[in-house]
Design goal:
homotetramer, about 170 residues, alpha/beta, 5-stranded parallel β-sheet, two-stranded antiparallel ribbon, 7 helices, 7 strands, globular
Chain lengths: ~170, ~170, ~170, ~170
Amino acid sequence: MIVLNGGSSSGKSGIVRCLQAVLPDPWLAFGTDTLVAAIPSSMLAPGAGLELAPGGAVIAGSQFRAAEAAWIKGIAAMARAGARIILDEVFLGGAEGQQRWRAALAGLDVLWAGVRCDGEIAADRELARGDRVIGMAMSQAEVVHRGVAYDIEVNTAHAESMECARSIAAQVR
Amino acid sequence: MIVLNGGSSSGKSGIVRCLQAVLPDPWLAFGTDTLVAAIPSSMLAPGAGLELAPGGAVIAGSQFRAAEAAWIKGIAAMARAGARIILDEVFLGGAEGQQRWRAALAGLDVLWAGVRCDGEIAADRELARGDRVIGMAMSQAEVVHRGVAYDIEVNTAHAESMECARSIAAQVR
Amino acid sequence: MIVLNGGSSSGKSGIVRCLQAVLPDPWLAFGTDTLVAAIPSSMLAPGAGLELAPGGAVIAGSQFRAAEAAWIKGIAAMARAGARIILDEVFLGGAEGQQRWRAALAGLDVLWAGVRCDGEIAADRELARGDRVIGMAMSQAEVVHRGVAYDIEVNTAHAESMECARSIAAQVR
Amino acid sequence: MIVLNGGSSSGKSGIVRCLQAVLPDPWLAFGTDTLVAAIPSSMLAPGAGLELAPGGAVIAGSQFRAAEAAWIKGIAAMARAGARIILDEVFLGGAEGQQRWRAALAGLDVLWAGVRCDGEIAADRELARGDRVIGMAMSQAEVVHRGVAYDIEVNTAHAESMECARSIAAQVR
């Protein structure tokens, strides 16, 4: 299993697609976006669900956390059933987010990869993409990496997605 | 757990969103589309992966079946971990597809719902949507229901998505 | 030229794609959505641009109206240059919106088609689509038709997109 | 008017959105993608329409050229009606494509900007995006610039979208 962690607009999704292309075996790609697409739109709201605060901060409520807990167990079960999985994650709480996944993935072979991008560059890319809430990139650039331990780190401000993917793929046994 | 089965362009996704809106608890929505989005694009090809034959038939190869087997176990694990899940499925092999899920979901409370739509109407809707491969709707309209047992069946040729959702929701305990 | 006018989620886009499929000549499809996609995101805001008020009402400011005036002249020029055009419009101001287009299209052969849908059905479809701001369908269902004169009217609450398209196509010389 | 010309996946769209953000006045963005979205799907086929040849080459037939001729006149009319327009173009035929636009835009103030990107980098980005036909980027990287005269050229292999946009914006009077 490969877990990528990085802020919004740091370039994780591009790296995931490049990883799927360069790795010799078929790998499935899931992530925060998969879970967010699965929740009812009523949960994309302040309160118990997933709240998008002014300025781009994302706040996860208790209902979202409950859904996420089941989601994490499900992904772990897929990996235990033999699927190779690339996870595209945003650890909103930094180390705490990694801890949640680490506990569920106990016993599995996991490569932890940090995807960094300077906040100002990520913010410009967010604007260039045109499909993201402005502010998320800057708000998440640093905080998602706080206290997180990685096997490898890449920086998309200095390397193309494919180059980052090749560095990560080289660590996969 | 609610499992919806129906052909392409039969209107399942609309029913899923209406179900999420009318059911009092938060339900997560996953389905065939989630899995297809997760596989590498190299698997969307003739051979071992998922092949789209001329005319709209979809053929699942061994690599796709292996990924699907892990996916099914993962969804079952999410349900066992307490998540309420609506599954938006296309049983390409009819009864055989249901059997795969039934085995994995043993012991869980499952509502099986068939979403029917006349092949010609589904084909016209496929054209009206403009984002689907032409031919899939007609090709799947009948075959996905072959030998499948349902708790409830709805027909989107005669009822709006919301009306179908309300009928299904009325069966949820 | 064919001008379709109807509220959000009344089913215009599906009819447009069916019209393109059933009409013997190639027709180009443009509309409100094309213009909205072209404006800078800074214009999707209260004030001079295009404002989405709570409840789903859409308010067009002076900057948006200026852009629209140029847009209308451009579409008219395309039609005068020989292009067959289907326009997918939302006359927020009813008759006033038609008047703006009628003036620009003077001398061209135009078929005016009204696309109606009961507000409650449109609101349910808006929810089923899952990609629209909730409230727009109900807010626009009646008001966009106020004082507008049509050559033909269709009602998507009682007929499929393809059936509506065939009725409209039958009026095209 | 600003005309950007560059191959698929060279990064034009990102530059367009950044230009819209940094330019003080409201600019409308149109381009090849707008026209392609407007044509009937029957025209996305070998023959008279727009053909996507194996390997990623795009071949424009007579029907597509006729639609494009009307489109060009329409955009010119919008500009003459006072709209500030950023055009996101792919001159498949190089100088010939520029000539078509230059004739229509006679008398207007036009800034011609070339958006370059090394073919191999564009091809990797095409793969990273995951929503484009593989091969278009490499196929178009050089050919679209053949014989085209520019007021300014930017290279997205060496500069972020925002940086390129600022260089171009500095040339706008």
